[in-house]
Write a structure and sequence with these properties.
The chain is mainly alpha-helical. It is built from five helices and no strands. The longest helix is centred in the C-terminal third of the chain and has 25 residues.
Length: 98
């Protein structure tokens, strides 16, 4: 999946106002990753909760649609991070040529 595919997917299912939540969640995730007392398994859960709260706040109400927008924003932020990480990080298996 390329960046263009990800952008098309986000625009197809996400409200325009909720797209900023994805960017904010990427920054929050970046800082949480560098916080020693936050376990890695907690980061996606924290981003999901923050995404729901932010989406409901930005879209003006607490509704099922807005909760889903927050969950989608967290999922896209996590997917974007993993795409970046898996594309840029060198792995031992890549080094060996296997």
């Amino acid at each position: 999946m390329s960046e263009t595919d990800l952008l098309v997917l986000a625009k197809q299912y996400m409200a325009d106002k909720a797209l900023i939540v994805v960017v904010v969640l990427l920054f929050i995730g970046y800082f949480l990753k560098r916080t020693p007392k936050v376990a890695d398994w907690m980061i996606p859960w924290a981003l999901t909760l923050v995404g729901i709260v932010m989406a409901c706040g930005m879209l003006g109400s607490f509704s099922v649609v807005n909760v889903v927008q927050g969950i989608l924003a967290a999922g896209i932020a996590n997917l974007t991070h993993q795409l970046w990480k898996q594309t840029t990080d060198k792995r031992e298996s890549d080094q060996d040529g296997n």
